[in-house]
Amino acid sequence: MDAQVFSKHVALQKAVESALVSLRHHGLLVISGPTGSGKTFLAHQLHAKVHGPNSPLISQHGAGLDEHRFESQVFGHVKGAFTGATQAYPGLVGMAERGTLCIEELEATPLEQQAKLLRLLQEKTYRRVGDLNERVFSGTFILTTREGLTDLLKGGRIREDLYYRIQHSTLTLWPLRDRTLDHGWLFDALKREVLVQLNIPHADFKQPDVDAVLKTSLPGNLHSLRSLIMQAVVKGCPLSEVPKQNSKELGMEPLPDCGSLKEDLAQCERHLIQRALRRNPFSRDQLAKALGISRRSLMYKLKEHQLSERDR
Questions:
Q1: Rounded Cα distance, 116 and 235, in Å
Q2: What share of the chain is helix, strand, coil (3-state, %, to 5)?
Q3: CA 12/CA 26 separation, integer angstroms
Q4: Is 0.85 surpassed by the pTM of this model?
């Protein structure tokens, strides 16, 4: 990956280049930075550079590592290993073979489970539940944290032995508000991403409006900037009008500024259905037609988002 693709700041470019070397030689990298600073984006770019774009990248949030079935979830299990194991499961490690296993927000992982991750990071060996044979993981690890490792250690949120194992392979990202040289191209990249995900061919924003947002109203991270763009596209209004539109729409909460793209899109979909409900409150057929979906799909969406006529 050309570090210039990630940032226009020379200091950050050099840090990214060093991180790539570390990932290649040590098979491990810790990316630290505040929410929305681009940790996930960079992880995908580095993974593609090391392993190729078609190799597996398996991501798992630390809070989602179940303490009761950690071994099965991460290392996998063989068929019949326990009640309910009707078929073999490769686990997160097995699925990431010859690719990257990314643990997001490492500090959210329970300390007891961090000890089990430590052994995997140190030896790159693991054993599936119910299996007598050890396996070797041929891939790389990327860990992300919202705070620096030293602060996490002081706060008791990561184990000391884990800290000393991973502290030498780190990269700290700056908050978006401090990366002024990156604001323009990041805005364009996020706009393209939103249009593709919403299947909308184009959206025009007046340059003075964009400049004003980037100079005076930049929310501070990629998630909130993406949410702002998405709301402007969905509502069909200028960027500067999004907060005003939000305040006028009863029953419509602003889109989240810290969720995943999947969560943002779900919020958009719910908003669009609510708006169509207000315009077509009595006929499900008209409502489905307005949304451009079948009546069957409409019924599924209403159930999925827990919407009914009273949610108009």
A1: 47
A2: 55, 10, 35
A3: 21
A4: no
Give the pairing type, strands 28-32 and 140-145. parallel
CA 126, CA 118: separation in Å to the nearest integer? 11
* 38 neighbors 91 (Cβ within 8 angstroms): no
Q: What is the CA radius of gyration of the chain?
A: 23
Task: Place 252 in a pLDDT band, splitting at 50, 70 and 90.
Answer: very low
Euclidean distance between CA atoms 268 and 274, whole angstroms: 10
Q: Characterize the bridge pairing of strands 100-104 and 57-61.
A: parallel
In one-letter notation, the amino acid at residue 50 is V
DSSP-assigned states of every residue in 220-259? SSHHHHHHHHHHHHHHT--GGGHHHHHHHSTT-PPPPSSS
- In the chain, CATH 3.40.50.300 covers 3-174
Fold of 3-174: Rossmann fold (3.40.50)
